[in-house]
Design goal:
By secondary structure, the chain is α/β, with parallel strands linked by helices. The chain is 36% helix and 18% strand. It is globular.
């Protein structure tokens, strides 16, 4: 897919969290601002705030065998927003090593057969996507390596590849919790003391910088076309 070099660059930032005051929502807002500063026209899609229902319905997928089917009005509107974006950033908490149901349902309902895949040339081909996942585990937790591999395989090597994205990257953000947490091999949860004051401010300032670095590196990277 080629884009008009003279047209405004467009980005869709998708935030998937059930709380408006969450760290995920905060990172989503900062990411949208960073993209605007980089010259993008940004569509900020807060799935919770817009009342998105992650459950698939028959109206969303009325005839599996018909690639030209008419989707539900809600899904059609989301398809148009996704189609309008050259670049997509999904911001979400990592639940059980993957995306939360709110984001998974958005992918299920909107990245539908006949739209996102199932065509000789996918309609999302050529787009770029960055997945920003916030994890409560600490950066030195052995589980982080497994979570990174799981997200890379699921989101980049499977979902984005299957839909023809030109580039897909996962930015994993550990240390999201104020109280450091880890799990022993026996499954015992170990919770440390909560950080506060200047230490807390410094911790989340560094967290913001890491998220911004992922976005900056993604914008600077050359897109490598994926095989279709």
């Amino acid at each position: 897919m080629s884009f008009d070099s003279n047209a405004p660059r467009t980005a869709l930032v998708v935030v998937a969290h059930h709380r408006a005051d969450s760290l995920t929502a905060h990172i989503g807002a900062r990411t949208a601002a960073q993209l605007r500063d980089a010259g993008y026209r940004v569509d900020l899609l807060d799935l919770r705030a817009e009342g998105f229902d992650p459950r698939m319905t028959l109206a969303d997928q009325p005839d599996w065998n018909d690639r030209e089917k008419v989707y539900s009005a809600e899904v059609g509107a989301h398809m148009r927003r996704l189609s309008a974006a050259q670049l997509v950033v999904a911001v979400f908490p990592v639940y059980w090593g993957t995306v939360p149901a709110l984001l998974k349902g958005w992918i299920d309902r909107v990245w539908n057969y006949g739209f996102a895949y199932g065509r000789s040339t996918p309609r999302l081909a050529g787009k770029r996507i960055l997945w920003l996942g916030l994890a409560g585990a600490t950066s030195d937790d052995p589980a982080i390596e497994a979570i990174q591999a799981s997200l890379d395989n699921h989101l980049s090597a499977s979902v984005a590849y299957y839909c023809g994205f030109a580039q897909s990257s996962v930015g994993l953000l550990p240390d999201a919790e104020e109280r450091p947490q880890s799990v022993t091999p026996e499954g015992e949860l170990l919770v440390g003391d909560a950080i506060s004051g200047a230490e807390r401010d410094a911790h989340y300032a560094a967290f913001d910088r890491t998220a911004a670095d992922f976005v900056r590196e993604f914008l600077a990277a050359d897109a490598v076309p994926a095989p279709l």
